[in-house]
């Protein structure tokens, strides 16, 4: 069991993380992003604005996109949490990761984990989204490098099973 001993007011929280049952001693009101990055060493979830404005910290909770910078770890108790680290398929990139790579949907890569998780949440709800649905699903995720066209094309390719 991992420990977060920064606060005397800590409780054991149990949840599934990337398909694996976890128990962690975590301080009350500790943000999920801090638990993931600092306590569990999962640094794929990025700090961006720390105010719910950029989407860099997007994770999936029970298959739905959530911002880890606005989510307390205690809210995850009993739920399934997925981060970018859980997206490899038998050591290989997932379909979305491959599509982002093939379509050059990343530049600096900082927004990519959040974009992929937001897109995965969409594809689980709607396996064949149109461009408008893709844009709407990614609207909360900011990218300073790409202009979004290649990102939208990557999500559409993944939905179609390409590459």
Structure description:
The structure is a single chain. This protein is α/β, with parallel strands linked by helices and 163 residues long. The chain has two domains: 2-86, Beta-grasp domain (Ubiquitin-like (UB roll), Roll); 95-160, [2Fe-2S]-binding domain (DNA polymerase, domain 1, Orthogonal Bundle). Helix content is 31%, strand content 18%. A six-stranded mixed β-sheet has the order 1-3-2-6-4-5, sandwiched between helices. Helix 3 packs across helix 4. The chain is globular. The model has no long low-confidence stretch (mean pLDDT 93).
Attribute tags:
163 residues; alpha/beta; Ubiquitin-like (UB roll); DNA polymerase, domain 1; six-stranded mixed beta sheet; 31% helix
Helix content: 25-40%
SS content category: alpha/beta
CATH architecture term of the largest domain? Roll
Overall structural domain count: 2
Strands of the biggest beta sheet: in what spatial order?
A: 1-3-2-6-4-5
Number of strands: 6
CATH topology of the largest domain: Ubiquitin-like (UB roll)
Rounded to an integer in angstroms, the radius of gyration calculated over CA atoms is 16 Å
By CATH, the superfamily of the largest domain comes out as Beta-grasp domain
Largest sheet: 6 strands, mixed
The proportion of strand residues reads 15-25%
Shape: globular
């Amino acid at each position: 069991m991992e420990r977060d001993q920064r606060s005397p007011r800590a409780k054991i929280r149990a949840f599934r993380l990337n398909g694996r049952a976890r128990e962690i001693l975590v301080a009350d009101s500790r943000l999920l992003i801090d638990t993931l990055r600092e306590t569990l060493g999962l640094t794929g979830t990025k700090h961006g604005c720390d105010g719910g404005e950029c989407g860099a910290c997007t994770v999936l909770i029970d298959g739905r996109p959530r911002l880890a910078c606005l989510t307390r770890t205690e809210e995850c108790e009993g739920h399934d949490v997925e981060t970018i680290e859980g997206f490899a398929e038998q050591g290989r990139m997932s379909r979305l990761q491959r599509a982002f790579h093939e379509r050059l949907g990343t530049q600096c890569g900082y927004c990519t984990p959040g974009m992929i998780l937001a897109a995965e949440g969409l594809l689980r709800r709607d396996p064949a989204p149109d461009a408008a649905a893709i844009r709407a699903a990614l609207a909360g995720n900011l990218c300073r490098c790409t202009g979004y066209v290649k990102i939208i094309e990557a999500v559409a390719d993944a939905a179609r099973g390409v590459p």
